[in-house]
Amino acid sequence: MTDSLNLQLLIFISSYREKQAYSGLMQRPVFHPQLIEALRDYNRQRFVKDVGAGLTVSMVALPISMAFAIACGLQPEAGLVTAIVAGFLIAALGGSRVQISGAAGGFVVMVYGIVHLHGINGLMLATLMSGMWLLLMGLLRLGVLIRFTPVAVITGFTNGIAVLIGMLQLKDFLGLPIQTMPADVFGIVSVISTHLHQTDLPTLMLTLSCLLVLAFWQLLMPRWLQPSVSQRLSMVPGPMLVMVLATVFTYLTDWPVATIGSRFGGIPSGLPAMNWPVMSLAQFQAVLLPSVTLAVLGAISSLMCARASDQMIDDRHDPNQELMAQGLANMVMPFVGGMPVTGALARTVTNVKNGATSPVAGMVHALGLLLIVWLAAPLVSHIPLGVLSALLLFIAWNMGNWRAFTQLSQFRWPYRFTMLAVFVLTVLVDLSTGMAVGLAAACLTFIYRISSLTNRQLLHRTANTQVWALNGALFFGAVALLELIANDLPDHTLVLDTQGLIYVDSSGADALRNLLLTCEQQQIQLMLCGLNPQPLDILQRTGLLVRLEAHNILSDWQTAVRVATE
């Protein structure tokens, strides 16, 4: 049991060794886009596949991008610009072969809150700063570390965001005459309940029909129809199908519902002119914390999405390159009228399922979407807002891991507390608080668990000599073990068997120094046996190895006892 626990401890504490799995990546230049590697053996067959996949994704991205932008309190073209410009840049410069980037559900609540509190200019500054943070993460090679975000935090956070996204869509889903929605859950509930009697029946009928079609297309069609038929029909993306059907129906029947044209006046046919945010120290300070939250959330979302795509195509992305590309794209977004960008899982899955082989597919997706905007901008104005809200409700349902709530009994109370705390705080307070508390709870739980795995064992004891075996990690949460040993010292020699000690931090080294000082004051000889590489290294760097003297460093405790008694 002890060996198993120590093995787990070694794997987790020495997580930096995970970088060795990326040894090939780490040997590359600092900036090395995946596109360079993908084009080495590129051919016409792969190009055809990439073009087909990219064009398919562009059709999926059209309604989703506008829906996310509207949900964030922005103009619909903000989502399209993000998908076009950022989607192209990240595909060309990123570290994943098939990942598609754009506006994503994970950002909806955060962006809506920033716009609500700080306005569009505040969002521009927060997006710019988040891009700088992401770029810095990539340059500092922190991409691998993002992977160690606890599952409980991610699950609670994602489920909380899904709930908030769903609540923000109720206004357009029900067709309520509400100009702006509050950013907090209590305000949303209050406003919705106040206007619930004003539910627009034509809008509700349309949105419910869209939800049913989406549910059938994704969930029921594979079960009810023959596999061959279902496979052919599924080539048509559900979001695109629903958008086209709803738009054609409302246009031909003159169905009395709000549209993009009636709400926003349509979208421009092309990319907008360059924008320059108003910058001031006070504004930078106001959005500093939101920018950090955006960066952390963006990093986690992008790299989790990249990992999912790796599993689908049996590949390995470069996390640091991906962070740098995401950072550069987010730094560009404020100047082209875009919004924060990250990896988009649904569009990435669509990309892979349609045969994408390289970042070329992501670049084609962006160019295809640009072509659609240029050619079909007047038609976009006829899209009902209700279909976009139905689409986001469906996405919110899919992004949530609702089974996690029913499986809580399988886990210990720290996991349950962390996940539920993150979920509740994300929904009831805000995303930053939920993420901060979740990470803090996870860290405290980790410290507690690791400290409980670190132990001492008495191997030999006489009046003159004691031998203690130390197992686990001697870090700041476990230094009390040495204090207990110091309280009951032998008359002549103290031997510490460190064969089971796999890690020592600076606090542990300081505790060893204090123990050595106590032994010197009481004229007791201190010996160390079986030092592993990492503890040996830190003892060398702190000067403790020299102070202990070479004759007190032995291979095993039996030899130490024999030397002490001679």
Could you explain how this protein is built, in words?
This protein is α/β, with parallel strands linked by helices and 566 residues long. Among the domains are: 409-450; 455-565, STAS domain (Transcription Regulator spoIIAA, 2-Layer Sandwich), CATH 3.30.750.24. It is 66% helix and 7% strand. It has 28 helices and 7 strands. The chain has helices at residues 2-13, 23-26, 34-38, 44-71, 76-93, 105-139, 143-146, 151-168, 170-174, 185-195, 201-224, 227-233, 238-253, 260-264, 281-286, 288-313, 319-336, 345-353, 360-380, 385-399, 403-406, 413-428, 431-453, 480-486, 506-521, 533-541, 544-548, 557-565; strands at residues 101-102, 342-343, 455-461, 465-474, 493-504, 525-529, 553-554. Strands 3-4-5-6-7 form a 5-stranded mixed sheet, with helices on both faces. The protein has a two-stranded antiparallel ribbon with strand order 1-2. A hairpin with a 3-residue loop joins strand 3 (455-461) and strand 4. The longest helix has 35 residues, at 105-139. The protein is elongated, with a radius of gyration of 29 Å. The model is unreliable at 1-26 (pLDDT under 50).
